[in-house]
Write a structure and sequence with these properties.
eight-stranded parallel β-sheet, two-stranded antiparallel sheet, 10 helices, 14% strand, alpha/beta, single chain
Length: 308
């Protein structure tokens, strides 16, 4: 005798709306990365030269990116210090040219500094990706004033460009998940209070930041608990150290591990996926959405009779 079979129960993510585009379970978004630095941890995404950055933008759009996220400072503590003025000089010209080339493309600014976001005001930036969890308390207000969305992140309280050392969230392995959920809930509600519309608030568990590999893997397994907060979820998994340490591989050999992590996050309800490898990620998240039943196959003729 077999047991009863019912519908598969999967998390239903909240929708994200930016520049009039709607992203949800059936329309997941791929966020391409363009780093205006010469010291990014992944050598394949170093575009200090503006023409190089524009070529990367063109390639990302051709490969299916919905959002392009530009940053001007390496995230980790390695590399030179970059002032706010120098950061703005790196990202603003790119945003200006990107907006002129692709008027309907969703553009994201990866910065933790309010002054950099203000400098980009005239570019029509759609999203402020604050990867350092509100370190600059003015940033969320600037995003609201620009009419932009905001990414709320979790870094365990570490300041910008700090790598985690001896980080602990408590004796229970789930303590890190509890801290992530509580921190993101607080940040999302603070963004709403600052005037950012809920459909323009993304929450990002921010794997690797303020986390050991064990922490990041635990949080990834609990993506559905982040989705349950009721805001669209961004997962930035691409070529990160938790992938590298899991497989003992350098950054340029972490594609397959990144895609596996992306598939898990998509199945559990994440909506936006920040990625270096746009084409592969695009195909993967669309396939996961189709397996989930949220996206119809683009062609389904196998087994269908054909009249001649």
């Amino acid at each position: 005798m077999t047991g009863s079979i019912g519908e598969v129960s999967l998390p239903k993510p909240a929708r994200l709306v930016l520049r009039g585009r709607v992203f949800d379970a059936g329309h997941p978004a791929v966020m391409a990365i363009v780093n205006r630095t010469d010291d990014s941890f992944f050598a394949g995404n170093r575009h200090r030269d503006l023409d190089s950055a524009m070529r990367a933008l063109d390639a990302a759009v051709a490969d299916g990116a919905d959002i392009v996220d530009v940053g001007g400072v390496r995230a980790g503590q390695e590399g030179a210090a970059v002032s706010a003025a120098e950061e703005a000089d790196r990202v603003v010209p790119f945003l200006e040219r990107a907006r002129a080339a692709y008027p309907d493309l969703v553009l994201s600014l990866d910065t933790w500094r309010a002054d950099v976001a203000r400098a980009a005001a005239a570019t029509g930036v759609d999203l402020v990706n604050d990867t350092w969890a509100g370190h600059d308390p003015e940033l969320v207000g600037v995003a609201a004033a620009l009419g932009a969305g905001v990414v709320v992140s979790h870094t365990g309280g570490l300041p910008p460009r700090t790598d985690p050392v001896d980080v602990s969230y408590g004796p229970d392995p789930l303590d890190v998940v509890r801290d992530v959920v509580a921190t993101l809930a607080h940040g999302a509600h603070a963004a709403r209070a600052a005037g950012v519309a809920p459909e323009r608030i993304l929450v990002d568990p921010t794997l690797d930041f303020g986390k050991t590999t064990a922490h990041s893997l635990q949080v990834l397994r609990h993506t559905a608990d982040v989705v349950a907060l009721g805001f669209p979820v961004l997962q930035a998994l691409s070529r990160k150290d938790f992938v590298g340490e899991s497989l003992d591989l350098p950054a340029d050999e972490r594609l397959e591990g990144s895609l596996a992590a992306t598939a898990v996050a998509g199945w559990l309800g994440a909506t936006v996926f920040r990625a270096h490898d746009v084409r592969a990620t695009r195909r993967l998240v669309d396939m996961v959405a189709t397996i989930r039943g949220d996206r119809a196959p683009r062609r389904a003729v196998r087994g269908v009779s054909r009249e001649h």
